[in-house]
Amino acid sequence: MKQLTVELGERSYPIFIGQGLLDQPDLVAPYVAGSQVMIVTNETVAPLYLERTQAMFAGFDLSVTVLPDGEQYKNLETLNLVFDQLLEKRHSRKTTLVALGGGVIGDMTGFAAACYQRGVEFIQIPTTLLSQVDSSVGGKTGVNHPLGKNMIGAFHQPNAVIIDTDTLNTLPEREVAAGIAEVIKYGLIRDVSFFEWLETNIEKLIALNPEAVAYAIETSCQCKALVVSEDEREGGVRAILNLGHTFGHAIETHMGYGEWLHGEAVAAGMVMAADLSCRQGWISADDVSRIIALLEKSTLPVAPPKEMSVERFRALMSVDKKVIDGGLRLVLMDKLGYAFVTEQFESSNLDATLTCSSELSS
Amino acid sequence: MKQLTVELGERSYPIFIGQGLLDQPDLVAPYVAGSQVMIVTNETVAPLYLERTQAMFAGFDLSVTVLPDGEQYKNLETLNLVFDQLLEKRHSRKTTLVALGGGVIGDMTGFAAACYQRGVEFIQIPTTLLSQVDSSVGGKTGVNHPLGKNMIGAFHQPNAVIIDTDTLNTLPEREVAAGIAEVIKYGLIRDVSFFEWLETNIEKLIALNPEAVAYAIETSCQCKALVVSEDEREGGVRAILNLGHTFGHAIETHMGYGEWLHGEAVAAGMVMAADLSCRQGWISADDVSRIIALLEKSTLPVAPPKEMSVERFRALMSVDKKVIDGGLRLVLMDKLGYAFVTEQFESSNLDATLTCSSELSS
């Protein structure tokens, strides 16, 4: 088992990574606030891991809420089902919520914990690759609005993140690939040597080779933990974690939540960010080709859905959270393995990226 | 104009109290974060003060959301109307929300600000006595759930609180009285000399004599600001601000939100807290009589609705936020003008209080 720490002063917390962690009740007990625990999971994960997770918390006054599965349920209405249960079961301010599932469950459970009685504790037990390497770490929680993804939420850090890598064995291939998109992201924003490692080891990772998986998760979490420690509330550098996300959110909103997986939209978005960075003269056409090749090997999309027009992209991107007082800010690369946030790009280059991406996918 | 400060380190903010402040745009401008402002108000307040408030923010890119009026609309569904508007009008992370209205508008606007894009700035412009002396100060925000009041919310401090005491001139008498209940509360929890001042000056306050109003609001806000500075997130002493509220919330939940005004329920609840404190031997029967007399002069209820049974009270109080891991904690008085939080009271005394209160009101 590996242990990392997200350093945030009195809100610091550990990330445990290893096989079989779901069978270690002693690991989680110190991170429960009081005597009450509510596990929040979904209909897909419950039959696989709920029983073992219940056994982990057997010593506590335990309740369970099972939500429907899917990004399309990540909204205020579904969130209210968690509040209903908490109040029906009379959970106090000292309760601890446990998120058992992927990014949607983690984001919603974390947001429920942020808001219930103005804030209770929670623990992340992510069961998808995407949530293990990204959304379970860093305290971003929230739900979607029909007009924009993650528009309603809070910063609320978990007490601990428990990553049992065995849970990936039941994950559909498409979701493994979606998680790999975020893994590749870490190679692009801060760590070109990790990008090169991925170019060499991508087949092992896709095949869920345990050593490759452990290394990829640990490296990804370490990168995320460092960035979050530097900038918890995304006043600055943390925004680089959104490489590909402004384009990606536009795709997700256009398609309707749940049609494209988040990681798939981010994959296409990262290619668009790379394309724009190349048009700006910051990275080479060869860099872009390497990025596309790695994503294609991972069976990920490298272009947006063909029906998305330039106008549609422009409209959807202008409501993204990265828009500050009117100016569109994007995460771009000024060399392979180094991302930064900027409003300083040629609008004509962005148009060219949007136009050519549409053509590429048609 | 008076200026107080809520001391909370980098989250410190001013409270301005005076007549005609709605006509002073220079007062608010320094507290707006960016170029966008959204005023949130309700159907009752809008015809009275919206135009002047719009003029205050004339220099900004201004939007308005008008919500229905009433505690029964303080829920996630109405909150979503604010998010709809913010997204339709493309408000960015740098927007500033302005709460123009009473406690419901302040709590909901503050919670919308806490959650929109994971947190934006807001300004409180309270227009009722109750919100001026209580809910606009201290950063408690949130909405109700059918099973409990203020069960979903956040701590989110405003950038400034602007109290224009002229707005009380349009307030219905019943709501003035409801506000006086919270004013009396400050006399009971920390300041017996203020309680005595109220005994002498209650008629002036009811008649909205400007000097009496100014003194009562300033003294109340000063008391609240001090308690909040000591304990922002209610880990300890801040709970004394909830004197009468556990009983009061049970009344409000039982009656359905909006039937009893919050201040009315708190008035009855404070009498119950006084009754229980007396049964514990901590305050005298004469103290209880003085409290009842002051509330009655203010035309406030001094007992719960007669149909509320002991069992109903017990059930509703057990979901109140002051319940920590099973034990019922109440704010009681151990002398007139001094409140504290305790679980150490005789259960039989609580039963007697609940029983006699029911009889008293029948």
UniProtKB/TrEMBL annotation, chains A, B:
GO terms for biological process: amino acid biosynthetic process; aromatic amino acid family biosynthetic process; chorismate biosynthetic process. InterPro entries: Dehydroquinate_synthase, DHQ_synth_AroB, DHQ_synth_fam, DHQS/DOIS_N, DHQS_C. Zn(2+) binds at residues 182, 245, 262. The lineage of its organism: Bacteria, Pseudomonadati, Pseudomonadota, Gammaproteobacteria, Alteromonadales. Residues 179-323 form the 3-dehydroquinate synthase C-terminal domain. Keywords: Amino-acid biosynthesis, Aromatic amino acid biosynthesis, Cobalt, Cytoplasm, Lyase, Metal-binding, NAD, Nucleotide-binding, Zinc. This is 3-dehydroquinate synthase. It comes from the Bacteria. Binds 1 divalent metal cation per subunit. Can use either Co(2+) or Zn(2+). It catalyses: 7-phospho-2-dehydro-3-deoxy-D-arabino-heptonate = 3-dehydroquinate + phosphate. CDD domains: DHQS (cd08195). One of its GO terms (molecular function) is nucleotide binding. It is an enzyme of class 4 (lyase). Gene3D superfamilies: 3.40.50.1970, Dehydroquinate synthase-like - alpha domain. Belongs to the sugar phosphate cyclases superfamily. Dehydroquinate synthase family. Catalyzes the conversion of 3-deoxy-D-arabino-heptulosonate 7-phosphate (DAHP) to dehydroquinate (DHQ). NAD(+) binds at residues 69-74, 103-107, 127-128, 140, 149, 167-170. Residues 66-177 form the 3-dehydroquinate synthase N-terminal domain. Pathway: Metabolic intermediate biosynthesis; chorismate biosynthesis; chorismate from D-erythrose 4-phosphate and phosphoenolpyruvate: step 2/7. It comes from Alkalimarinus sediminis.
